[in-house]
Amino acid sequence: MSLVVVGSVAFDDVETRYGRRNPVLGGSAAYFSVVASNFTAVNMVAVVGDDFPDEHVDFFKSRSIDIRGLERKPGKTFFWSGKYADDFSTRTTLATHLNVFADFDPVLPESYRSPDFLFLANIHPALQLKVLNMVEGKPFVAGDTMNLWIDAEPVLLKELISRVDLLTINDEEVRLLTGEFNLIKAGRMIQEMGPKYLILKKGEHGALLFLEDSLFFTPAIPLEGFVDPTGAGDSFAGGFMGHLARKGTVDAQTLKEAMFYGAVVASFTVEDYSLERHRTVDYAQIEERFQQLVDFTTL
Amino acid sequence: MSLVVVGSVAFDDVETRYGRRNPVLGGSAAYFSVVASNFTAVNMVAVVGDDFPDEHVDFFKSRSIDIRGLERKPGKTFFWSGKYADDFSTRTTLATHLNVFADFDPVLPESYRSPDFLFLANIHPALQLKVLNMVEGKPFVAGDTMNLWIDAEPVLLKELISRVDLLTINDEEVRLLTGEFNLIKAGRMIQEMGPKYLILKKGEHGALLFLEDSLFFTPAIPLEGFVDPTGAGDSFAGGFMGHLARKGTVDAQTLKEAMFYGAVVASFTVEDYSLERHRTVDYAQIEERFQQLVDFTTL
């Protein structure tokens, strides 16, 4: 089944208690695509500047990622710089240079127009809606968002939410969006706004899937080698959507498995900066860690 | 199998975003005993003042709790007052009046001296050690502690840790005690200090069991009716030790089940103030919620 992602490709400058890396490959579409490509072919829609090196493009190509939707424009690539608190409870953005991303106007290549699965990574909800309007057929659509859009574009965001099948959102954002402190009540309120499913992301504390009338949980996999959480959420989404697209079904059992695959691939991402860890992970290691997660949570 | 707990019985004055209750029954031994009594008979060692009402004593008696070890002394019962931040991330202690607990000198009644299972709730490590020295035979011993003793009594605490089979400790405390930020490494460091097993408590984010060469996790059960986390840790311990004592074995499978029972009974505790919720919970409801937890975590 075909899978399309629309999001960002960026250069990141990241500092955690374990060190700093700059500049490294980042961006939601980069994390999503590289990770999802462990499960299925991925069609990427994003924009980079003329400073984006061929080596990164070659990395994408080497992973069965279709980059016909990766536009290259004159100017610089999106740049983000951030620093995590020593306990990782907060992240401070030091710089955001949108550069060519400021005028990002996603266009789906003809060959991407009828996807079976579509992930709208965290970009302006007007662009997410534009992509939705461009799509033909009835794909399974998952969308991500952030506090910025909840504050700045509540009307557009609510329209977007009403049109996705699944929303991914973190605990802070779901409280902001609904005004409800209790996460279960807040999640159910989001489902009443449209999405059949919701993934409530809690970072190192795991992720909660709201199904129609039940809940399913995956913890984050405990790691001795944790160094940088950047990209964990988009990696989770990549594993989650990659597994759905591979299976070609969206039933409760497949969604639960997808949660575990999401946690597994995110656990590799956070073991190194950027996407470095994924250069050496093979599929057998993904299955091995999947089994570890099963043992970690199953009586 | 016989189960003994040594800890506090107290009056609490608790305020959360959902309201305030004062004075209510509290204390580690109270939570532990009432909860564990769902699984097995419990022998309680604690001290109260002459202001402690018969109604609470009758409540203990009604739950197959042996109170021959509940000493009543002239003076007032231990009093604690605290307020939780709106997001429950922190708890501020407003008052601690030790009262008769200041001179607590636990003595095990003759009939308690050879327990099969012993829980040393969070009291001064010198008293925990005193109890350990009083015990005959080779019980399975679990101990709890807190940051106060890590700072104030590091030598005694380390002796205590070297002598328990299982330590329960939260994420902040394990970092303080070991100087290691990574929780998995920190947990393994504690195991090298003596305990074969460790339960790392993460409050609303669940609890992690360190077995000899693997890890097992239980999330907290998601609740729409959460109101007050006071006593959740001691309730967890009560469910955990209660199940072990009921089964009479300490193998990996039983320990994993005990983690789930701990999460189940703690989830009832936090649905009301004090031990109120447990006045109406019957064992069938415990099994029903246990099955919910299995469904919540199992593919």
Keywords summarizing the entry:
alpha/beta; globular; 10 helices; UDP-N-acetylmuramoyl-L-alanine:D-glutamate ligase; 4-stranded mixed beta sheet; 299 residues; homodimer
Query: How confident is the prediction overall: mean pLDDT of chain A?
Result: 97
Query: What is the number of independent domains of chain A?
Result: 1
What's the oligomerization state? homodimer
Overall number of strands of chain A = 13
- Cα radius of gyration of chain A in angstroms: 18 Å
Strand content of chain A: 25-35%
Just name the CATH architecture of chain A. Answer: 3-Layer(aba) Sandwich
What does the overall shape of chain A look like? globular
Q: What is the CATH superfamily classification of chain A?
A: Ribokinase
Description:
The structure is a homodimer of 299-residue chains. With 299 residues, chain A is an alpha/beta fold. The first copy, chain A, has one domain (3-297): UDP-N-acetylmuramoyl-L-alanine:D-glutamate ligase (3-Layer(aba) Sandwich), CATH 3.40.1190. Chain A is built from 10 helices and 13 strands. The first copy, chain A, has helices at 28-36, 54-61, 125-134, 147-152, 154-163, 171-178, 183-192, 232-247, 252-269, 283-297; strands spanning 3-6, 10-16, 19-26, 42-49, 65-73, 79-84, 91-97, 117-120, 140-144, 166-170, 197-201, 207-210, 215-218. In chain A, the strands form 2 sheets. A 9-stranded mixed sheet of chain A has the order 5-4-1-8-9-10-11-12-13, sandwiched between helices. The longest helix of chain A is centred in the last third of the chain and has 18 residues, at 252-269. Chain A is globular and about 50 Å long. Chain A starts with a strand and ends with a helix. The relative contact order of chain A is 0.15. The mean pLDDT of chain A is 97. Chain A binds chain B through residues 17, 86-87, 181-185, 202, 205-206, 208, 214-217, 219, 222-224, 226, 253, 256-257, 260, 294-299, and chain B through 17, 86-87, 181-185, 202, 205-206, 208, 214-217, 219, 222-224, 226, 253, 256-257, 260, 294-299.
